[in-house]
């Protein structure tokens, strides 16, 4: 079976998590499938997320935003990075197209990494864009900067529009015409809630809260305040360079050995930054979500609307999160009812569509909605 190339934005781990969910779904439906992954997201992330076979190719595929913290972006640095990255040089896309040809790839799937679309066009193979936003629309969300970003907005808008197949996935930041719209894509659960809690030495009768900034290692200034709630076990991925227990706190490294979707499923509540994979994994698990929006970020309205309309949730301001004042509303968050049952996974729907519309046919069928 010819391999499928994935070009993945390295902006956080959300795009990689979504792409991994799609790869797993495709691999489950096409035994023997192989994937060629182009990104600068660490290879270990895919080793931990995939059972399907893949080859890893470290490559800068995207800029996104340059950030000074998980909640703040640096627009000056972002613009400088875009000036260096865009437009794509013909020699660069030709070289990468030649690499895809030598690898035998028959399809390129892009999780908002526009380089993949350009390379697929040069290689003469189909491209699929998977997104809940595209960078041109986000950059346009800073009107005071539009004059400086405009050439990149125009270039990226044309690039994204040239994708052969367009899939949008909830939570969609701005709904546009697409070939397919699906619910959130999430990596599937592997272990039961009980097994994960046992592995973490957390009893079934103990309240467990996960605090996450999207897998990014972060130093928190409120840890001592959490110790004032000994009745709650706080698990903090990315909270330390190695696993450490401090009273009722379990600090985990970025790569902890605990599969993150299972960790979310095992908790009673989640407190974290608003980001795609965090939303998708909390939605899959049905857990209450104390969400921290990023002020002024153009992606936020669509994400927050989905959280508030589809999930048990409550907002926590960035200021309250940083100071630890959010601990005062911990009981209200834990009192929210967990969503029961299972929800459809957009990764399975997207995989079936790609197999039927792209791999087995010459083009996509008419526009589909699968919500």
Question: Care to count the β-strands?
Answer: 17
Number of structural domains: 2
CATH architecture heading of the largest domain: 3-Layer(aba) Sandwich
Radius of gyration: 20 Å
CATH names the topology of the largest domain as Rossmann fold
The CATH class of the largest domain: Alpha Beta
Average residue pLDDT: 93
What kind of sheet is the major sheet? Answer: 8 strands, parallel
Low-confidence stretches: 362-367
- β-strand amount: 15-25%
What is the terminal separation in angstroms? 31 Å
- Class computed from helices, strands and strand pairing: alpha/beta
Fourth-level CATH superfamily of the largest domain: Glycogen Phosphorylase B
Taken from the alpha-carbon principal axes, the silhouette is globular
Separate helix tally = 15
In the sheet with the most strands, the strands line up as: 3-2-1-6-7-8-9-17
Percent of residues in helices: 25-40%
